[in-house]
DNA sequence: TATTGTTATACTCTATAACTATA
DNA sequence: TATAGTTATAGAGTATAACAATA
């Protein structure tokens, strides 16, 4: 009788992600950061965002959640917020030199983490994995 | 100049896992559960554990965190805890009929979620993915 | 003393609802 | 009225430290 024979990929994915996320969390913490801070920094550096709403979308959190993190980051001297003269409703978020430095440190930690994770896997396998993960994610995306 | 050319797999993995985890969280919540409850139920059903310490390890949390969840599950009538007569330090955790029912409901939700996620992927690809993820996780595991 | 588990407490991340400022 | 963002509040998950019970 034909039955689905393969293992529940969701379980494997969840377990792997949990393990990887914890290891990465520790690496980020050791470098003076955290997951949300890293996500915000990398978004600021790589994605052109017009306002905080778009930044929140890029990071994958609600606007109020982003505000919460930006408050902490501003208090820590990592970012500045100033109103856009052209549209004073908009708050422009910019990295300070300290923010740039932390970005570099966290990027190093992320690269080291990546190299550790992919040890024993070929570039072809990594590309395959990335492709499969992307297709998986697409299946559970609403948009 | 030879440079690492492939994308940071950690980023792809983190993004995919976040998306998948959120979708799964919603599915579990709709079925009356949550991730930790599901992990505890599935561990109780599939892994023979001698005590809560082992159960906590299986779930991947600290003992106190497990106690926290078991308190809630016991209050909800999903599990019972009684002392082991042979070693009264040990608390035996057992599923109630309600716990069994919830396990079945969450299992259905997990299966549905899995089928949704793997749409468009062949069994071979899923097996490949599981293998790659397992190797990745192994690389960041301390043990 | 060592082991098993609980309680007390606190921290991080996230979210929703109500609010302020600006257009 | 609509849009951008903040504040207030709350809830879930996790952790560490101190404790109680048992061996």
From TrEMBL, chains A, B:
GO MF annotations in UniProt: DNA-binding transcription factor activity
The UniProt entry, under InterPro entries, shows: ArsR-like_HTH, HTH_MarR-typ, MarR/SlyA-like, WH-like_DNA-bd_sf, WH_DNA-bd_sf
**What SUPFAM superfamilies does the entry give?**
Winged helix' DNA-binding domain
Q: Any idea where the HTH marR-type domain is?
A: 6-138
What does the record list as GO biological process?
response to stress
Quick one: signal sequence residues?
none
Looking up SMART domains in the UniProt record yields: HTH_MARR
Under what name is this protein listed?
Answer: MarR family transcriptional regulator
The species is Amycolatopsis mediterranei (strain S699) (Nocardia mediterranei)
């Amino acid at each position: 009788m034909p039955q689905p024979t393969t293992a529940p990929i969701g379980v494997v994915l969840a377990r792997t992600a949990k393990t990887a996320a914890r290891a990465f969390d520790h690496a980020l913490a050791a470098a003076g950061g955290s997951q949300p801070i890293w996500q915000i920094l990398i978004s600021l550096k790589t994605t052109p965002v017009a306002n905080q709403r778009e930044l929140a979308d890029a990071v994958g959190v609600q606007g109020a959640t982003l505000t919460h993190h930006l408050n902490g980051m501003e208090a820590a001297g990592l970012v500045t917020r100033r109103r856009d003269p052209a549209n004073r409703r908009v708050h422009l978020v910019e990295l300070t030199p300290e923010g740039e430095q932390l970005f570099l440190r966290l990027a190093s930690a992320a690269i080291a983490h990546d190299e550790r994770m992919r040890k024993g896997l070929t570039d072809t396998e990594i590309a395959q994995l990335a492709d499969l993960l992307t297709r998986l994610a697409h299946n559970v995306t609403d948009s």
